[in-house]
Design brief:
By secondary structure, the chain is α/β, with parallel strands linked by helices. It folds into four domains: 125 residues, Rossmann fold (3-Layer(aba) Sandwich), CATH 3.40.50.2300; 125 residues, Alpha-Beta Plaits, CATH 3.30.70.270; 107 residues; 116 residues, Homeodomain-like (Arc Repressor Mutant, subunit A). The longest helix has 41 residues. The chain is elongated and about 130 Å long.
């Protein structure tokens, strides 16, 4: 705490300054002035907590100075010193709630005790003021919470006497609610309210508005606002721009949403609810922007995003290795999603989850080691779920696609097509009807070009490769005695067991049963050797 000594006698001032261990009394700084006028002027910059002052001084008495000081510093404590037994001065001191009235000649012990008492009184007054301010703040917050909820039928109407501050309780005041939802705030969660409050207050004050507010889950701030006139959507838009500008220095991530106008405090919950509804749509807005509630009749019907056919379009674009085309297509997609009026955020997250899967499939098709090959599905979904707008999802997918094209840049077109053919055969070899035509359609090339390309690259025809692949799978199954040969035949794409046996003997030089017996004998030999 800080103490100011005011006395026109220099001897008294110096004696007090040098004869008392102020630090031991809890006083951190001591200043002095030679009369009431200088004392008052010095107080504006020094801002003392306690003033130790003579009563009678030239130009401005201690009483006059104290009267002025208590206007600017309501919690200040005054200790008067005087050598005069003047009842009028004593009455004035009592009226000013001076802590003590010490008579001259000064007794240092008496001064020390008076300062100790003054220090305690200042601390108590400040604590009381803080509790009162907190109480009012909590009351405002509690009222904001209560007004955000629809009034219960069994609950009596709130009375004006219940509210501890100035608030319009009539049925005609116009209100609207706006929300500020902050994202990705991490360790700033606890102090976020104190951080943003002066910025929001400045924007509202400059717009001639008053508010009460509260916060939910530490990051959703909601403000019930009223002013002298009805706020149109155009004026809300201007206020939204003011709030964006005010919050800019904080570099936070957020969306601002305005609810509809209502009349009377009893209808505020309707404005709050409309803002919450619109908050869901902020998923389709860029970061650090605002939206204004717009009534819609189509919330019960939702668009099927499968109609966009984005998975097939993305795969085709990736395999053709056209980065510019892919980027343009994804940009067109996000614009289309933003323009839709009846889709949910989780529908969009699910779509992007599938598109990330398409990128993974494209890595495999081109025989590229994917950066995210070991990434668990739940980790990917967690990353997508943490995105608070379609633009964040779009940025993540663009980054993954960019990495794909960087990795795919050195691959030749023919090799990638051949590998895609091999992957298709690996997925479909059990289908007896699998044909060159099916394979050609999958890679979107003509049958003749596919056959020539595959033969040039592998040295065998497509049919030869398909047959060898099927027989290779059959060999693995024959090593397991649980499978009958007729069942193995069907599993590798041959419904006719006799035909399978002929093909197997042609490729392997022995029948399936002979191959199994040979493998079983070899296995028995390994065990006996062990």
């Amino acid at each position: 705490m800080k103490l100011l000594i005011v006395d026109d006698e220099k001897l008294t001032r110096d004696g007090l300054m040098n004869s008392i261990d102020w630090e031991r009394l809890g006083i951190d700084a001591v200043a002095q002035a030679d009369d009431g006028l200088h004392g008052y002027e010095l107080s504006q910059s020094f801002q003392p907590d306690i003033v130790l002052s003579d009563v009678r001084m030239p130009r401005m008495s201690g009483i006059e100075m104290a009267e002025k000081l208590q206007v600017h510093f309501p919690d200040i404590s005054i200790i008067f010193m005087s050598g005069y037994s003047d009842k009028e001065y004593l009455k004035a001191a009592i009226k000013l709630k001076a802590v003590s009235y010490v008579e001259k000649p000064i007794d240092l012990n008496e001064i020390k005790e008076a300062v100790r008492q003054a220090r305690q009184d200042v601390a108590a007054a400040r604590e009381a003021a803080g509790i009162k301010a907190l109480s009012i703040s909590m009351s405002r917050s509690s009222l904001a919470e209560r007004l955000a909820m629809a009034p219960r039928a069994d609950k009596a109407q709130m009375k004006e006497a219940e509210i501890e501050f100035s608030f319009p309780t009539d049925r005609h005041t116009l209100f609207f609610t706006f929300l500020i939802q902050f994202y990705h705030i991490g360790h700033m969660l606890n102090g976020l309210g104190d951080l943003i409050e002066p910025y929001v207050a400045q924007a509202l004050a400059s717009s001639g508005l008053w508010e009460i507010h509260s916060v939910r889950q530490g990051s959703l701030f909601f403000y019930h606002v009223w002013g002298a006139k009805r706020y149109t959507d155009r004026e809300k838009d201007m206020l939204g721009s003011k709030l964006e500008e005010a919050l800019k220095p904080l570099s936070l991530h957020y969306h601002i949403v305005f609810g509809k106008n209502v009349e009377g405090m009893g209808e505020i919950h309707n404005s709050y609810n409309s803002a919450v509804i619109e908050l869901q749509n902020s998923f389709f807005s860029p970061d650090k922007t605002h939206r204004i509630y717009e009534h819609r009749d189509d919330y019960d019907t939702f668009h099927d995003l499968g109609e966009l056919d984005m998975e097939n379009r993305l795969m085709e674009s990736l395999l053709h290795k056209d980065e510019e085309e892919t980027s343009a297509m994804l940009q067109e997609m996000v614009e289309e999603l933003v323009a839709m009026r009846n889709i949910l955020p989780n529908q969009v997250r699910d779509l992007y989850y599938k598109l990330f899967g398409v990128v993974r499939d494209a890595y495999r098709a081109l025989q590229i080691q994917a950066m995210d090959q070991g990434e668990p599905d739940n980790s990917l979904w967690g990353s997508l779920s943490s995105c608070e707008s379609v633009y964040e999802l779009h940025e993540l997918l663009n980054e993954r696609v960019s990495l794909f094209f960087s990795s795919a840049g050195s691959l030749g077109e023919e090799n990638s097509t051949v590998y895609l053919i091999k992957q298709f055969i690996a997925d479909r070899y059990q289908d007896e009807a699998l044909s060159v035509k099916d394979i050609s359609a999958h890679v979107m090339l003509s049958s003749s070009y596919v056959c020539t390309l595959f033969k040039n690259d592998t040295g065998m025809t497509l049919n030869q490769y398909l047959t060898e692949y099927r027989i290779g799978r059959a060999k693995k199954l024959l090593a397991d005695p649980r499978y009958k040969i007729i069942d193995i035949s069907a599993k590798v794409g041959y419904s006719d067991g006799n035909y399978f046996g002929k093909i197997f003997k042609r490729v392997c030089g022995m029948s399936p049963s002979e191959y199994r017996e040979k493998e079983t004998a070899a296995l028995r030999g390994e065990f006996s050797h062990d």
